[in-house]
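Tutorial sheet, problem 5. The two components below are modelled jointly, 698 residues in total.
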Amino acid sequence: MDFSRLGLSAATLASAVPAVRVPVGSGQLVPACRVAHEQGAHLVALWASDERDRVGGTLVRVALQDASGLAVLEVAVPDLPDARYGDVSAVFPAAARMQRAAFDLVGVASEADDQRPWAWMASWPIDRYPLRRDFEASPKWEPGQEDYEFVRVAGDGVHEIPVGPVHAGIIEPGHFRFQIVGEKVLRLEERLCYTHKGIEKRFESMALADGCRLAGRVSGDSTVAYAWAYSQALEALAGLAVPPRALWLRALALERERIANHLGDLGYLGNDGGFAFGLAQFSRLREEVVRTNLAAFGHRLMMDLVVPGGVARDLDRDHAAAMVDEAKRVAAEVATLRGIYDEHDGLQDRFRTCGRVTPELAARLGLVGMAARASGQARDLRCDFAAAPWDALAVRKAGATGGDVAARVAVRFDELAESLRLVRSIVDHLPEGDVRTPVPDVPPHRLGLGYVEGWRGPVLVALEAGPGGTIRRCHPHDPSWANWPVLEHAVIGNIVPDFPLINKSFNLSYSGQDL
Amino acid sequence: MLRILRQIAKTGMRTEAPPAPADEMAKAARLQADVLRTLGRALAIRQVDAGSCNGCELEIHALGNPYYNIEGMGIRFVASPRHADMLLVTGPVSKHMAIALRRTYDATPEPKLVVAVGDCGCTGGIFGESYATLGRVSSVIPVDAEVPGCPPTPTALLQGILAAITARVAVAGDGESATPPPT
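Model answer (structure tokens):
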């Protein structure tokens, strides 16, 4: 991204993908966002840090991505009661909830109209900000109940359905407020953050080396992606080159995580479409894959496999061979099942035109990851910034333009087939050598970025070390931040009974967004 | 349709097949027999995610796959706490979920069982207690059995469910609660 027309200069950041840091003045934040937007950039993340002890204020960071890499705009907001930073959501709508969360957690306000709380839900005093360094929790604070101002729709025959936070299925908690007429959805408003468990604050009490375990538990279904992104950030700060075999094993684990999640979701998508056969078949395949993970890596979900400096466990020949056999067999079975899904009229009737996000809408709202690829946004970090080992694997990018449930199902099938191919290719070309190297000390007060294409989408970890191997600040950013607001648009005009199907086709993370 | 039938015939009965790791399946088969003997009727479970990272939920989902076939043991997951005999609760209990969890517990008819799932549900796990979490499930509602693990395997989950039931049956056998639970 080129900000020279605003007279801004960029400095290289320690990062896994090309990245620059761009300090901006308070009046330049929104203009810089506009300049980036004109160059095709989209929003990756917005977060804030209490830096009153170092720069006398709060630092708000806005990570943007275009074809050249990442740019992190950095604006210092002085510690004054009325200080505000520019409303980034005016350019990138996905910033709205991130700005609201940044206020709740750090106490720095944007100029946006919507100043409703997001991360705050009456469990701590509204004028205390947990991510400030002088914050101290009191045991006297009891969980409370907020009076959230949902946007209501009025008119003849319009009524409201509140759902959650405790849902009917085995899923994460969140609240959905539907405004409907008949069975048609006029409006959906999400109220998330029920699983807010203070992850960012928890990081600050951990050593740099231990933070990886917590990163791997931000969103359990993406544990490999998070652990890798965290490790990347730390390794970038340390200037550490990871042994090639470790990089390839990380890629193997990441693809196996993608395979397991797509298998699971394809089963549930069939089930939500009234086709229980699909769930039985795909859940069987998923179980077989996670059992192989257990046998090879000692954990069904591969938690704590990726560690800073490499991987915690090598892959032996027998398990490598088993993975190749399994990949061939599962690929053949998935091809059969895809034929059955494609030819099943009842299922296709539910999938097609359902929960549509047009490419234009996806671009405007900043949809990311797998869902974006189903709406014509052809971005995939494994292809667009193909560092080792991706450069040697030539990942084929999946894509569709329909933007409906059928398109997201098709992209999942394509990615599943590609990941199964990648498993075979990775095992066949696995370099010999060490799988772990010691991580040297890292300098404090520098920002390091990790950025990994998880199964759901790109996972960003922004990490800053403190003195003596401590974590000063860590912001893990889930692709769900960007995609949850788009789900609200995807259901408009659909019928309420199709919501579970549409929701599952995105399968967004609550825990990853709630932090 | 033919292809569907062919796929079903080709897949066969996975519940009885002994796939690797074999001892895991043997354990599951024993548990299945124990659940049926101890319970002798359907058990309705309501799962509540009170703040988990979703890792435990993945393993709870796995209980439904053909390998564990939890429905074949007469155990099913229900949509409302009002239909449930047991709550399967994952944690750590976030403060934002504490009220919803307590209300779910109150909505579950007596006699009821609560199983705390995962390291976080048992102890607060890596998240501990903080401004945002209350930690273990038992700090919010009474717990009958705990299943540690990060996340616990499906087999461990079945063992925990069984432990909670056998503990309750043992208590009923002592005459403290002679009335059988409603069917």
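Marking note: Residues 16-22, 175-183 of chain B have pLDDT under 50 and may be disordered. Full credit if you identified this.
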